[in-house]
Each structure stands twice: as structure tokens, then as C-alpha cells.
Amino acid sequence: MTADLETVLADYRTGLDAELALLAQLEQVAIRQHALPQPAPPEPLTGLALERERHLTALTALEQQVQPLRQHIATHLTNARQSPGFAGIAERHRRASDLVARILHLDDESLDVLTRADTERRAAAHSLETGEATLAAYRRILQQPSAGLFTQRG
Prior knowledge:
There is one protein chain. By secondary structure, the protein is an all-alpha fold. Helix content is about 85%, strand content about 0%. The chain has helices at about 5-35, 40-75, 75-80, 85-145. The longest helix has about 60 residues, at about 85-145.
């Protein structure tokens, strides 16, 4: 194995460690979002969205730096697998995949809760509008001058 490949593997392992740290922070944001009371107040949701955006921006920038290293390793995969540090890299990949799966699961649950809350809000608004329309119709009927059957003598 060449010294160049060993350097690439070491740099890649460092990049994966940084990605794992960012993914752990993203998971904490997802957990905090998931724990919000429902309906969630807008201020905490906005704060968490901004925090999530910062972490994702950092993760994207880091991924752009790691991608060429990953490509180099893929090109020399047979030799890379013989490296004693390759098992550690594979373990980091598994941990990153597990973190991403947990984040996505939490996000899916949070999205379901937000969707249900939005549906309930829309139904309540529709009921309110329907009730207001009914009351307006009753007011019109009550405000009409009495005429017809009740005012005629027969």
C-alpha cells in the first residue's frame, strides 16, 4: 500500500469523524423538535430550523471536501481494504448511516405531527367559517320585517 493511500485514508477518517459530530448535533436538533408540544409555537420551530440549516450547511461543505477522498479510496479499494485502518472507516460509515436513519425517522414523525396539526387547524378554520356563515344567515332572517302568514288575519 502506498503512503499516499494511507494519507488519504487518515484524512478520510478525520472527515468522517467531523461528519459524525455534525450528524450527532443534527440528531439533537431533531430530538428537540420532536419533543416540542403540539401545536408547536413558531419561535422554537424557527430557531430549530435555523440551527438545522447551519449544521446542514457545515455538513454539505465538509462532504464536498471528503468526496474526492472517497473517490480516491473507491478507485483503490482493493488496496484500501488491506489497510489496518479500513475497518475503522467501515465502522464510521455504519455509525453515520445509523445516525442518518434515526434523524430521518424523527423527522418523519415530526412531519406527521405537523401535518396532522395543520389538518386540524384547517378543519377548525373551516368549521368557524361555516358557523359564521350560518349565524349571518340567521341574522338576515331575524332582521327581515315580519310579513306574510303571521301578520295576516284570517
